[in-house]
């Protein structure tokens, strides 16, 4: 069984590395990370249901290192997905305050479990038989009661906390990169070229929601870079082109999806208007 688990982990690492190192401001990429991580966790669960560990040492290693490696990244992608949906698009100060609030929540969670965090970071071993073996729930050692609601065949008392530590490190690294980007923007360290005169006075007079609908339609159609163009880059181009701010276009897209009737109403309007123009032109000439 251990060979199957290691093969699954190896395949996951191969698939997840280019995602982790790519543009994580693109919610589509983050969603792909969630999907890949969930598939790997499901594969782990299926393997454990049909087989047994050959030794206690192998069980500890899986729940201390292998599962948290994947589950920690799943937590990271899920939290990042939520962050992108709620991320403010206003002033730099507002964006920094949002990141600071997210960091404070992470630090509060770690502080609440400070003893185990220290144990895990120092890679101690003496309590592994309680922390990372199934069915060894010592309530006196538990700092997080959430494991009592998890699948006892696929969880120990502390593998979830180990995953949380990994997710914390990834999130802190990402937030620091975001803060560094905002600092550079505030100090005008990245000088952007002036827009060419031909782009002047091209104002967008429909709603911003309509423009977001167009952007997502273009990506879905494969019309730009065979559908591989990042939504955030397409949105940035439109913002530059029409001299506007789209705000949180990810959230706008989800609002579009929640429409009860005619979810692509602007695209429908475009089709109707173009057909009417063609009809008018035919009648005129």
TrEMBL record:
Residues 165-192 form a coiled coil. Keywords: Coiled coil. InterPro entries: Tet_reg_excision_RteC (IPR018534). The keyword Coiled coil applies. This is Tetracycline regulation of excision, RteC. The lineage of its organism: Bacteria, Pseudomonadati, Bacteroidota, Flavobacteriia, Flavobacteriales.
